[in-house]
Amino acid sequence: MIEALGTLNLAVALHLLAQIGAAIRVLARPDKPPAVRAGWLVLIFSVPVAGVVLYLLVGETRLNFRIAQRQRKTLAALPPPRARHRFDPPPEAWRAAFARAASVNGYAISHACAPRLLVPAQDQIAALIEDIEAASDSVHIISYIWLDDPVGRALAEALIRAAKRGVEVCLLVDGLGARTFLRAPHWQAMRAAGVQTSVAFPFHWALFKLATSRIDLRNHRKLAVIDARIAYIGSRNIAAPEFKIKARFAPWTDILLRLEGPIVAQHAHIFATDWMTHTGRALEAEPDTPETQVTPSPTAALGAPAICFASGPMLDARAIPDVFDAAIGAARDSLTLTTPYFVPGEGLDAALRAAARRGVVVRLIVPRRNDSRFVALASRSYYPALIAAGVQIYEHGPGILHAKTLLADDHALILGSANLDRRSYELNYEACVLMSDPALARDLAAAQDGWLEHSVRIDSDSLAQWSLARRLANNLVSILAPVL
């Protein structure tokens, strides 16, 4: 009995030392804001054993050494595109947002020509395939998820046809998001046809990799560059809206933006850096470095001020929240945001409330049902303060509204792959574009109004109907929001 008690005391002492060591590590890290530190400290000391283990596994952004080394070499070897001519600047109120976006990757404010917002799901893939069929030099694509469904197979077949006629086709998919497609016949068929394929953050040997890096760092970008002349960016994965791996949350509603003009050089640079980082190989057809060498089609108009910003581990962990914060702060009349995962953190939460209090009409559209239970609970913990400040919150359904958009003052917008949560801020590789274009803004406003027609407004009366258990669950999970 005494021996067993001594063993127990030793185990307790060792566990306490492990907790103290993990806590010191949390407090000593220079890259963690106070809320994240507090969240991890609560988890470490309130959940025996598991809290320490979770921090060791996912508490720090540890990039695989080989990938980190390649990324550093790639960024040094591929300077950002140069703009040879001055373009019309964005409106004065928005220059801070553009300047912060410019600081992320060193890109200059550029111009986007012939913008085309693709809203219906069938139009998105149809337009992409049409441009692939017309490609003469190169097709470069990044996708987080690629499913072996009718959409995934149709796009794969278009890439096979392009490769067979001599087009340089390079495809980069994420090892987790595309894991089922990597075993599908069409993946092998693409490689056999000459499509150059690569996998970002392969997911095999996951337990072994835990010892050296985080396995939940993902390339979440959705990007395509065709003939260094046309670019696509948005929230759309290569999957049908029925999204068979999470069919009970279907349909998934996405958005895609097609662009031409000098801005395409920035998209090409994002692809090239990812490709070289994960393959160690340079592209055969290097992207044109000067933006002015990437010209639009003869029918394209002059264009509108635009800039890309691509974030990720080792790049700029504050890029997403800072650019969104600057955009929210610049809004004077109206602001509408859509995101499937809303755990904004203190900064963006405060910015939204401040915008509403200064008279901006602020609307937030999120899914009614979320495929992440914890994110849904954490999201709703923000509702009371936002609604009290005057923010209008809408829950969209059925399905998942997966589009990530910001529209302000009928001219400025952000589109891309980034959600408003810590995963997009710090853990995922994301790509977005910031633009000032009244015509494109009208198209986005029409899309957002369409989503609102299928949404239910959550107001103070709705909150009053929440049970005590529901409020407690929301607020309990919100304590861990910084580490979600």
Question: Layout of helices and strands, plus pairs?
Answer:
Blueprint: H1 2-28, H2 34-46, H3 50-58, H4 65-77, H5 95-105, E1 110-118, H6 121-134, E2 138-143, H7 150-164, E3 168-174, H8 185-193, E4 196-200, H9 206-209, E5 218-219, E6 223-226, E7 230-234, E8 252-253, E9 256-260, H10 264-279, E10 304-311, H11 319-330, E11 334-338, H12 345-357, E12 361-367, H13 373-381, H14 383-389, E13 392-396, E14 400-401, E15 405-408, E16 412-416, H15 422-427, E17 428-436, H16 438-453, E18 455-458, H17 460-464, H18 468-479
Parallel strand pairs: 2-3, 3-4, 5-17, 8-14, 11-12, 12-13
Antiparallel strand pairs: 1-9, 1-10, 2-6, 6-7, 7-9, 10-17, 11-15, 13-18, 15-16, 16-17
Helix pairs in contact: 1-2, 2-3, 4-10, 5-11, 6-7, 7-8, 11-12, 12-14, 13-18
Structure commentary:
The chain has helices spanning 2-28, 34-46, 50-58, 65-77, 95-105, 121-134, 150-164, 185-193, 206-209, 264-279, 319-330, 345-357, 373-381, 383-389, 422-427, 438-453, 460-464, 468-479, and strands spanning 110-118, 138-143, 168-174, 196-200, 218-219, 223-226, 230-234, 252-253, 256-260, 304-311, 334-338, 361-367, 392-396, 400-401, 405-408, 412-416, 428-436, 455-458. The protein is of the alpha/beta class. The chain has a 16-stranded mixed β-sheet that branches. The protein has a two-stranded parallel ribbon with strand order 8-14. The chain is globular. The model has no long low-confidence stretch (mean pLDDT 89).
